[in-house]
Amino acid sequence: MSLSNLNQLYRQVLLDHARYPRHQGTLPAPDATLTVHNPTCGDTISLNVAYDGDRLKQITFTGDGCTISQASASMLCDQMTDQPLTTVQAKLDQFDQLVTGTGTATDLLGDAAVFNEIHQFPTRIKCALLAWKALEQLITQKEAQQ
Amino acid sequence: MKRNDFPILTETMNDEPFIYFDSAATSLTPEPVVNAIRDYYRNVNTNVHRGVYTLAAQATEHYEAVRQQTADFIHADKANEIIFTSGTTAGLNQVARGWGDLNVHAGDEIVVTLMEHHSNLVPWQQLAQRQHAVLKVIGITADGQLDWSAFQAALSHQTKVVAVTAVSNVLGTRNPITKIAAAAHAVNAAVVVDAAQAVAHFPIDVQAWNADFIAFSAHKMFGPTGVGVLYGKTERLQEMAPTQFGGEMIEDVTQQTATFKAAPLGFEAGTPNIAGVYGLGAAIDYLAQIGYEAIQTQEHKLDQALKAALDQPDVTVYGSNNPFAHTGVFSFNLTGIHPHDVATALDQQGVAVRAGHHCAEPLTEALGVHATVRASVGFYNTIDECARFGHAIQATRRFFA
Prior knowledge:
The complex is a heterodimer of chains A (146) and B (401).
Chain A: H1 3-9, H2 12-19, E1 32-38, E2 43-52, E3 55-64, H3 67-80, E4 83-84, H4 85-99, H5 125-145
Antiparallel strand pairs in A: 1-2, 2-3, 3-4
Chain B: E1 12-13, E2 16-17, E3 19-20, H1 31-44, H2 54-73, E4 82-85, H3 88-103, E5 109-113, H4 122-131, E6 134-138, H5 148-154, E7 159-165, H6 177-186, E8 190-194, H7 206-209, E9 213-217, E10 228-232, H8 234-238, E11 250-253, E12 258-260, H9 274-290, H10 292-309, E13 315-317, E14 329-334, H11 339-348, E15 351-352, E16 354-356, H12 361-366, E17 372-376, H13 383-400
Parallel strand pairs in B: 3-15, 5-6, 5-7, 7-8, 8-9
Antiparallel strand pairs in B: 1-2, 4-10, 9-10, 11-12, 13-14, 14-17, 16-17
Helix pairs in contact in B: 1-9, 2-9, 3-4, 10-13
């Protein structure tokens, strides 16, 4: 039956992140915040980050949207908390390649490796990337300020 | 059976029989329309209003015949009241800029409804900003109908335009255009109707509506994309300026100045979508052949079947409780499941629906949600498809439970 295909997309770990999102909320003193939208569906993610030199010390999110976008944001924050910016960039690159089907490396991605089948659902790639693209924008902003 | 005219309906999608429930986005195109477009490119393929040779004259003759056919189709007085556009959006923008800039001034008021598609809202927002006019948005009642007393209260001698959709693309609500036009005309306001969602479902009679401008698209009435119709009353078209300039629309051009043709050609700058107009003509023929009566009989059954399919726990349907007030459009949500996830789950079961705000963000917000799932049907859909859609929703609920 076709719904069995859905199990490839909505795996248990993903549903778990969507139901019990990690790192949800604001930060008392963020260095930067950014809100992004997916205009086609109205999904919203706001990221809050705090840096410590060249480390991404803290990252939290608030938002509203589908299972994929919210779970993905939760996993992003899980993966990026207290990471050197070089690692953050490497993870961002790896995730981008994973969800667009242009790469298969997942050694840096932890739970987020669960998105390895999403390229079979091309209309949902944007949902998975929403939070990750937002962080990429924040990192670019930080680099521009330096 | 007319389903055979739509080959896509026999396809499978994700190993399931394909169920197309997104006709409000675009209707499927029957073979005779596809053939008309093909015939133009294969056998005619000349420009209109230009060539002296026989084949070019033939294209012009057919193009103008479709104009007359379109006028007859919506009961317009004259073919010259029919302007071919690229679609509803282009038509509404033409009115907002070409007519609005000349006739709406500082302090004047523009009245729209909360049910408008962005294409019948944003051009009026822009006009209001350009002219320092006031935009008033009339709300809806709990069952998705126009708030009539608020509408009446908003009208005054300041009102210059009432822009309203004939059918909501989210709720399927039909607005009482004849009544709206009468009230608007009582304060000398012009009435602009977005008929995009109406034309596949019931006949448009511009005489009965008495609207000043009406816009619709061919691709929502079994015709091709990229072509549409702007109807304007002759006296209103005389008050409207062209917004695009170039070939075909001019009368005389000197190095520094130009004069323009009257409607309709004065509003059709550049080579038009000739193949599209051939397709539009074939779509009008096709509609006539099926007949609105047969369409409505079938859609009546579909509305009932869709309502029944959605009558299950944890399903919220927006708009009227009366299935016949939906014009084939049902927006809904499943409690606790995001519309995008629902749409993906339905897609995996072969059902094509839309999820999102359906280019009507203010209405979606007023419904208290960020997005909805929308199932919308055409006469080519079946009761069996509605039942299978209901089962697919059940399976979706179980999957995400």
